[in-house]
What does this fold into?
Amino acid sequence: MTSDKFALPRRLLVYCDSLARRQRLLETHSATLVRLRDAGYLVQLPQGWKPETAADSTSGVASGNVTAFAVHSFFVELERYRHQQQPGAAWVGHTLVHAPLLESTQDLIRSFAFPDGTVVVADRQVSGRGRRGATWDSPGGSLAFSLQLELQNGCDRPVQFIQYIAGLALAESIPNESPEAEQEAARALHIKWPNDLLVDGLKVAGILCESSVFRDRFTVYVGIGVNVANAAPTAALAQFSWASALTRERLLARFLVRFERFLTIFLDKGWVASGLGARYTARWLHQRQLVLLAETNQRGRIIGLSQQGCLLVELDPLSGERGRSGASAIAGQAQCEAGTCSQYIEVEPDVSSFDWQRGIVQRKQ
It folds into this structure.
């Protein structure tokens, strides 16, 4: 722990979407609450999420220069979007753990046994984590959260796709609710494989998926950071006209409802048959992009995702010769467009990095 980083008490407020859910949490996860307190967290469970029943909450109250996540607004938005898009029993977002300050939402949710579908959100995160172990400070105005999912071990849908489902759900949750805003966002907001969102080349969101297996349960942890209204270090979504109505609470609610719906469809029908694959590739930067595979010095063209969730590259049959001659990736264009590419290679996201601007795929160092 790096407790010296914390200027505020290590406070956690645990909200449930109903009193029945809160009672069930107390009955089934009391050991988790004890472990959190033993670890030095001040844990509180307000009676409800409405202002009159959560008077002890810091919800929506500024602390220093950071405005607290408005829990009441979040649950109101969550109920509204559930009613619009997914009536019936909800799986994701029924329990919300709110922290004014955390080292990492991902570390917290991975370290303690929360109920399936729990979301951890922090007003500020000082040691957020990325795919290559990089850490960053998520300033006030950004949305930093992690989500826990439990799937049956042996599920025949590759878990690799969950990060793509999250990216698609996030991209579709950002624009203002109008056809014009959605069209503008579709032109400006793109998915960079495997897990970033970019606007005009600037990163505005990142996704980290991690997993663990215990007996017959497969647990996935989805960590997401989004520049919503923060002033630094890069572009924030709320500065764009097509996302001017965006708030952290609205974005989280819209994302959870979409993500749950997309995941349910994926588990039922798969990536392609569900139509999710087409929606995803319509938003990403890479369709038909020419690339160089640095490790093997081969060239080819990205054609989509494989059945296992890897980047699928159609190889130029003469790429080895061109590679030795030192030609650029553009040299393979005519051969591929002539229809003579017939070999394919899968690029795994967990062991590869992709410089999309230069078109170079290489193994992580």
Q: What stands out?
A: The chain has two domains: 7-281, 290-363. Residues 1-7, 54-58, 321-335 have pLDDT under 50 and may be disordered. The radius of gyration is 22 Å.
